[in-house]
Amino acid sequence: MLKKKDARFEAYVLLFALETLFLLWFSILPSLEMMGPPVLRMGDIEHFIAYVLYALIATRIARYYTRGWKVFVIPFVACGLFGGLCEFIQVFVPQRTGDYIDFFVDVAGSGVGSAVGFKFKTFFSNRLK
Question: Among 7, 26, 62, 128, whose Cα sits 20 to 30 Å from the Cα of 90?
């Protein structure tokens, strides 16, 4: 049986919506040039952390709708595609460019967040009581 939607579910949906707005907002802001090594730039760390959090929240929401491996796959794919959408939008924003490395970092963060959320079923469970 699937979980009954409760106050925690509403909190997760609110956090997910806020994180979505956060990611969109920072995707359309003019970029600040950050220097860093060519392999791991400062923005990559920020992208990774943001998408880990995004996928963790999405995984918590997915537990209310489905069970099994879909709890991992649906948030992973949805968050990864959203990262791709943000990179695509940046192509049309002045002083921004879509970057395939950022997209891969977004997908990696989505994978880690989904895996952690899938593996640890009680992640956040006792925090919102």
Answer: 62
